[in-house]
Inverse folding.
């Protein structure tokens, strides 16, 4: 076994966390039973770059039960749950991840999991796939978990340097309609509350971006009693926000009235010096996008006259005008750095999609490029989730199917 983690003695605590997640991930556990019986991944080597959480552990063990050998690195330097990493090593998975990696250590770990022959890549954010493209790895196929990652991998495809097929798991409805909306909506607010313990009710929360993630955050913030302001660059999304009852304005105007700012755009420099200098004394900044570039930490570091770590995951910056702003989790993913990531129940569907996507890749030969998860796999995950909740739904009769396929009334 080759691995690099914080401390192998944390494994017992990690096992307890993983067992708790398994109780709340019935769809993935059902797929694990199928994989255990059929061994569809026998002899396959998987290079994975994902947040090393208890939910990810349930996926890794499912893939292992299917016959795969797994090499796992973190997709964020601060998101690894060290006890889970230790547990996975005890289970025979090659883990190269620990909380608090330097940038060099982070990329070195990704390079390590890619070294040697790898049949499948499994990515969360695109760093693994980008490195695979740069060093010329030609796998059977890969998967991508996030919106940011899909955008980056499509860029690789356009430039002609994506050498193998990648399934955009993020685009499955059972992923982005639940993971992105309900998962991030809850877990981002959870991270802010753990880092600050402030009251949300009565505050003005500014959400940058009204995609699936931003919509989920806005809904949850409003549910906690906040006045919610949306900033957007897309006119259609801005209009959706207005029709959903949210205030919409430019960030430079929102900066003057916001108490808590949450970025969810996937872009860089969403909050910069220009905005920060307009903010109230005591404004709180958090990022729910994949990379730490949405809130310009560079600008904060440049203009601040002093900087103090007040609490775990909360840093106070004093500005030249005497006001103070507070950055959560160093500008990295607030839900995974300051909290535990998405609830197990929602990752149940996302990771069921991942497991079935790997089996699908191995069952047929796809051309290099970005591919969607087949609708029948997406629908099956939804059916299994409903079944696990004790919910039954109607089905179409043959006559109804025929009617829907005809132009006749």
């Amino acid at each position: 076994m080759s691995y690099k983690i914080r401390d192998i003695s944390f494994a017992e605590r990690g096992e307890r966390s993983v067992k708790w997640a398994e109780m709340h991930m019935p769809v993935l556990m059902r797929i694990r039973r199928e994989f255990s019986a059929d061994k569809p991944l026998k002899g396959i080597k998987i290079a994975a770059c994902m947040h090393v959480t208890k939910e990810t552990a349930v996926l890794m063990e499912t893939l292992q039960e299917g016959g795969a050998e797994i090499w796992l690195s973190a997709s964020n330097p601060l998101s690894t749950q060290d006890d889970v990493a230790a547990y996975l090593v005890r289970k025979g998975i090659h883990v190269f991840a620990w909380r608090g990696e330097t940038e060099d250590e982070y990329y070195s770990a990704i390079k390590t999991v890619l070294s040697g022959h790898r049949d499948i890549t499994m990515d969360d954010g695109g760093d693994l796939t980008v490195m695979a493209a740069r060093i010329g790895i030609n796998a059977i196929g890969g998967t991508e978990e996030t919106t940011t990652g899909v955008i980056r991998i499509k860029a690789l495809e356009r430039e002609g340097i994506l050498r193998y097929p990648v399934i955009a798991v993020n685009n499955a409805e059972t992923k982005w309609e639940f993971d992105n909306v309900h998962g991030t909506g809850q877990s981002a607010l959870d991270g802010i509350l753990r880092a600050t313990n402030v009251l949300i009710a009565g505050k003005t929360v500014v959400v940058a971006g009204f995609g699936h993630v931003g919509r989920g955050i806005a809904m949850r913030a409003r549910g906690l009693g906040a006045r919610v302001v949306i900033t957007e660059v897309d006119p259609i999304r801005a209009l959706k926000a207005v029709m959903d009852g949210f205030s919409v304005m430019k960030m430079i105007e929102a900066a003057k009235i916001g108490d808590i700012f949450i970025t969810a755009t996937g872009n860089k420099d969403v909050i910069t010096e220009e905005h920060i200098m307009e903010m109230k004394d005591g404004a709180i900044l958090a990022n729910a996008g994949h990379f730490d570039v949405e809130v310009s930490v560079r600008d904060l570091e440049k203009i601040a006259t002093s900087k103090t770590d007040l609490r775990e995951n909360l840093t106070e910056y004093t500005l030249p005008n005497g006001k103070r702003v507070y950055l959560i989790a160093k500008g990295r993913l607030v839900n995974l750095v300051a909290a535990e990531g998405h609830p197990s129940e929602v990752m149940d569907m996302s990771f069921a999609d991942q497991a079935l996507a790997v089996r699908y890749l191995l069952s047929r030969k796809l051309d290099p490029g970005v591919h969607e998860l087949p609708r029948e796999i997406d629908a099956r995950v939804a059916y299994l989730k409903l079944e696990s909740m004790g919910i039954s739904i109607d089905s179409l009769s043959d006559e109804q199917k025929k009617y829907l396929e005809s132009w006749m009334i």
Q: What stands out?
A: The chain has a mean pLDDT of 97. Residues 8-175+342-388 form a domain with the Rossmann fold fold (CATH 3.40.50.1480). The chain is about 45% helix and 15% strand.
